[in-house]
Each structure stands twice: as C-alpha cells, then as structure tokens.
Design a protein that fits this description.
Length: about 500
Amino acid sequence: MRWLNLKDLSPEDQQLLKAACDISATAYPRESDFPVGAALWVKDPGGTGHTVTGNNFETIVYTSLCAEKHALARAYADHSVAEGKGKEVIRPQIEAVAVWGATAEKAALPCGDCRQTLATANPDMRVIAGAGAEAKDDSRVSVSTLRELLPWAFELKSTKVPEPLPLVEPQKLEDHIVHLPYPTPRTPMRDASKRLELLKDIGGMILVGSPGRARAIAEWAEKNRGAQQECYCDLSKPGWDELSREFALYTARVPGQPGIAIASHGIGLSGVEIVLSEVPALLHLASGGKSAPLRGVIRSGTRGTIAPVPLGCVALSTSSLDDHMDRVVPDPGLLEAIRSAARAAKMEQVSEGDIDARDFENKEASTLLIEGPGISTTFFWRGQGRPLWRHPQLPGRRMDPTDAAARYRLLESWREAGVRWIEMEDYTVHRLCAELGYPSASLGAVIASRRRPDGSYQVDYNHASQDLEVSPAQLAFDALMATLKRGG
Ligand SMILES: [Zn+2]
C-alpha cells in the first residue's frame, strides 16, 4: 500500500475519490454515525466507462449495507447485459473502487466482508481510500489492490495448491554457493579440508553488517561466554580469497551446545539475501547434504531513529516495514528470548507505547532496550534526510531547498505510520527467514537521530564505538543460546 496526497493521484482516480466523498454526504449511518461513500469505475459489456456510487445504509434493527456493496449492486443492476430470458448475463468489469470515510481520521479501507464481495467481482481491482470532511489536494490517501488487502480470498472453485518446488539435489548444492567461498580442491584456502567441519551442528545465526563486527562478536563470545571461536572465512582479510568482499563467517561454540554462526553481509539488503541463501547451503554441505535447520536468526546492527530516544540505546524491532509499507513480524519466541537476555543484563525495557511519555534524561542510554516498529529502506541515506552530494561546478541540478522539505516529508509519512527505526535489512531478513522456516528477530544500536525534540528534522550522527555495536549482538548471542538450550 502506498500513501500519497490526493493531488498526486491520476486525474481519473482523483475524480473517483471525489465522487466517493460527495456521495458520503447522503449516507444513512443511523446506528454507526460513520458515513461512508464508495465509487466504482465500471466498464460495461459494450466497453463504456461509468462511475457508479453507493453509500452506507443502516436500519433501526441493525441490518446494514456497506457503501461498497451498495455501489456494486447498483453497477450490476444498471450495467449488466441480459441477452434474453434464460441466457447468460454479462456483468460489467469493475476496475477500481474508491472509498471515503467522511468522519474517519485515516483513509477508510473496505471492511472484510466488502473485500470478499469485491474480490468476487475482480480480485485485482485498484482500491483508493481517503477520509475527511472534504476531498482536498493534500488529503492523505492510500492506493492498493484488492489482492493486497485480501490475499487468498475465498473462491467457490477449489483453489489449486501450488506444488512445492523440488529441493536442490545434494550433489548440486554447490551451485547455490556463488559468492561465498567453500572448500573445493580448486580453492586454495588454508585448512580447506577442515574448514567445512566448523559448520557442522550450527543451530543459530547472527547477521551483522561489517566483517569487523562479526569478528568482534566472536571474540566477545570467547572472552565472556567461554565459547570456542573459529574463522570459517573472512574475505575482508588479505589471503582468504582473490575477491575482496564484506563477507566474514565466524563460528562460536559453547562446549556441549550447538554452535552459532556469525556472518557479515556488508551494506544493505542484497548482501543479506545472498548470505541467507548461501550460508544455509554451506551448512547443508557441512552436514553431508542432510537438513540443517537454524532455530533462530537474529540480525544485529545499527540504525537511525525518528523517535525521541537517546543515541546509544538498543532498539528492538516489533515489526519491520518495507518501502511499500508491507509489514513483517519477528518470531515471538525469539523476541521473548531477547527480552530475557536484556533482563539478565539488567537493562531497562521500554515498550512501544511508553516511548513518547518517557523522559530519558539522566538515563544511561546503553542500559535501555526500547521496542517499536522499523522501516527497512533502500532509501536509507536519502530517507534519513541526507542530501545527495553534488559538485557545485558540475552541470545539472543545484541544491534545491525544496528537496530537503521533500525528504523530511518522507520521514514524516513514516512517523505517521508508526515507524520508530530506520535501517536497511530487517525486512529482508524476516521475509527470507519466513520462507526458509527460520525464526528471526532483529535489534540494533541507535546511532543516528533524525528528529529534534521540537519536532523538526535534523541530521545528527553519533560515530559510535565498536562497543556500542557489540552490545545488541551480546543480547542476540545470549538469546540464541537460551533458545538452543531450550530446544534440548
Ligand atoms: Zn463493508
């Protein structure tokens, strides 16, 4: 779903939304007092387009007709073609629905019943929704498709269950490993024959950005948790491979327990995708092609914030959005394990609803674990309100003062959607782990704040020490160890 201003819609969609707004004025919401208007864009069987409106209608005995269903019934009654008695009735094509809630605070989306009813007409129709006393240029409106709002709608004909994709044959497993080195006779790496042994019986994985951080966490686990740490490979170090990449894979193993892999993926989400594809393949190779399920994957990194929290606190994501506001949620069991690890570390926990009311002054930031939703965006840098660098002597655009305003508007739209954290990878981690069947969670040290206490936006960066970046990873390590122990 995308959120934009009404004036940024196509002229046709603006018209449709205004029609929905207009018809909401004569709605009859005698019980709910919540007037709704709907307008459909309808192509009749002859190919002519029509706007068909409806509004909600409620009775003293609490029966009701939603605006969308009202409009759909009118469209079918007025724009179907019956070719004679007993012959087939040709229905109009419903291309889009606009819905307007006159007293709603946010765009009024169709209720569940209407989603199903509209999906029966056309599961791929466009859904535009808005709210307010009148439809204005700057009214915030949402644009989505019905399939987005109602995936897996009920259908009378039996839904065909997709065949699962065949698993890769074990002898072809190596084909999955394109970017990360694995020991073959042709890769001249130290202890090649022994290296794969390190990946046997790995039960959990910590994902970090930089190779240095992976190293630091493995060393921390050795020093503080009695783990035996090994380096599977570190492509940021000379001598490991002719390719210099940001990938490092360390293992940390507490005696008698399954090991934990600590992998770095470099900057951004593409690295995450590759690491989450290739590390499981390496684990399978190490276990002789047998299934090697991970019982937890925790991404531990750094992030920016648009919430009034102190720099240096640890932020735990309760959900992660992507640029299109699609939301994924972490595994509740892993979240709980992270909270327990924080309690054991004597950290104070702040829930999402308590952030705004809290006064964090005189609090040691690193002792705070603060929860809330985050956004993972490829517009990480610009999305944090940073300008593109342009040389003043180069031709092309000069710095445009309205550009900053546009970037801050993006931040503001995220804030309105409840976003607290801004980073690049969490969404990809949760989406891929859900596909792979791995429970996942994510947390990170807050090292940048984009919001001043007065509500304006700023660029403020804390060049944090390595220590700051290791502290969330400690929670990740302890949470994974507890999860693995619980599993027996
Ligand atoms: Zn409805």
